[in-house]
């Protein structure tokens, strides 16, 4: 069923069961790859909360969970400027940090995060993102764990919002008639 959010219409794109299946595969890969490490999942708020919640339960390793809040979107467009919304005080030094994002779109937010997190002297930094838009991506860094590569259309659901609404939808929707 299509969703009407603010002034826009969104159509079903990725089902809840496909999402859950894929997140379990990512969790199993991470379980294999980080045995014996001091692991931290660093969720980027707000968008990552649902993905992080499912992903952490699919990883069978001891791990810490931490959060950082940044923001750069207004409506369906990036402002190009990443704002860190609150201070960050957790200890990441010597730990393996997996940055957990809902989406890497232009890549501006992740570029900011990679630079910011290195200041905390982690042993290693990896990236897990639920979604990736290769046609919108403007950078060269590589992504370690990607749920789904998607076309360059605005999406909502599973944590992602359009002007603050739509995050609680358990499946993913894409904008109707967008380019
Ligand atoms: O690759 P980019 O073009 O930078 O887009 C990705 C970023 O945009 C969204 O954040 P947003 O600013 O909407 O904040 P939110 O997570 O609170 O919704 C998303 O959660 C990523 O952080
Ligand atoms: O397609 C998107 N949907 C919601 N939030 C976003 N932030 C970057 N890209 C998107
Ligand atoms: Mg947003």
From TrEMBL:
Pathway: Purine metabolism; IMP biosynthesis via salvage pathway; IMP from hypoxanthine: step 1/1. One of its GO terms (molecular function) is guanine phosphoribosyltransferase activity. SUPFAM superfamilies: PRTase-like (SSF53271). Keywords: Cytoplasm, Glycosyltransferase, Magnesium, Metal-binding, Nucleotide-binding, Purine salvage, Transferase. One of its GO terms (cellular component) is cytosol. Its EC number is 2.4.2.8. Gene3D superfamilies: 3.40.50.2020. It catalyses: IMP + diphosphate = hypoxanthine + 5-phospho-alpha-D-ribose 1-diphosphate; GMP + diphosphate = guanine + 5-phospho-alpha-D-ribose 1-diphosphate. It is found in: Cytoplasm. Residues 21-162 form the Phosphoribosyltransferase domain. Signal peptide: none annotated. It is an enzyme of class 2 (transferase). NCBIfam families: HGPRTase (TIGR01203). Belongs to the purine/pyrimidine phosphoribosyltransferase family. PANTHER family: HYPOXANTHINE PHOSPHORIBOSYLTRANSFERASE, HYPOXANTHINE-GUANINE PHOSPHORIBOSYLTRANSFERASE. This is Hypoxanthine phosphoribosyltransferase. It comes from Algoriphagus kandeliae. The gene is hpt.
